Amino acid sequence: MRSEPSSQAPVLSARSLVASYGRNPALKGVSLQLGRGEILAVTGPSGSGKSTLLMCLAGVVRPDAGEVFYEERRISMESEAERSRLRRRDFGVLFQFGQLVPELTAIENVALPLLLDGSRRGAAMAAATTWLERFEVVGLARTRPTEMSGGQAQRVAVARAMVTEPQVLFADEPTGALDSLNGEQVMTQMSRVVREAGTSVVLVTHDARVAAYGDREIQLRDGQIDGYDGAVDAAHVVIGGEAS
Ligand SMILES: Nc1ncnc2c1ncn2[C@@H]1O[C@H](COP(=O)(O)OP(=O)(O)OP(=O)(O)O)[C@@H](O)[C@H]1O
User: Fold this and answer.
1) What are the distances in angstroms from CA 125 to CA 101, 138, 146?
2) Where do the structural domains in the chain lie, given as residue ranges?
3) Which of 106, 134, 201, 218 is at 20 to 30 A from 28, Cα to Cα?
């Protein structure tokens, strides 16, 4: 794994992010950069702030202080409506439990983000079929999530997260609910597909085997960056866009 971010302009960057829940601080000044097409693994123990960081980067949560830039946009300053449109069009989000809609079939679940964004039904279903094929679950197109295995459901969930062809995919413990074999299959497919698509990925995980799919790793501890690539090394902390 590389220890430094790519030299290209980052697709996403954060400067000195601070976030708390009431009086409980979750992030205490986190800065990072995500390179184009890069898979960045964010690791750290439970409660270290990984999910909060992901939500700030994805524009779900506004940080108390600090900034998040996507391309040229300072998204941490944007309105909820602007961030919501950004999340629909440019970002994909994937959680531990794929959170498929149980009443809908696999193909309807995957088509949903396109339909919500105004695509015609025929085009949305065709795109959904393509993405189900890429994750080798097209045979389940008419199946509902309750009739799928955990691994199958998660592959459908990744297809749904990718159907809008996002610039950035945010994945929070994407294999956390799976056994190691299924987890490995989902990660192998996901990393192949995102590399083919050129998607940048923020991959939150506490599992070193999952983090190994990343190009680079940052470790959080107690709301702060604690190290890179397994080595605790404050000298690599990126502050204000420059390596300090
Ligand atoms: N909704 C909430 N209300 C209050 N405190 C919260 C909330 N969500 C998170 N926290 C606190 O913020 C801190 C960071 O939590 P966060 O979920 O970001 O960590 P995490 O590294 O993702 O943990 P895990 O691996 O267990 O999911 C923790 O101290 C946690 O208790």
Assistant:
1) 16, 12, 21
2) 1-90+199-244
3) 201
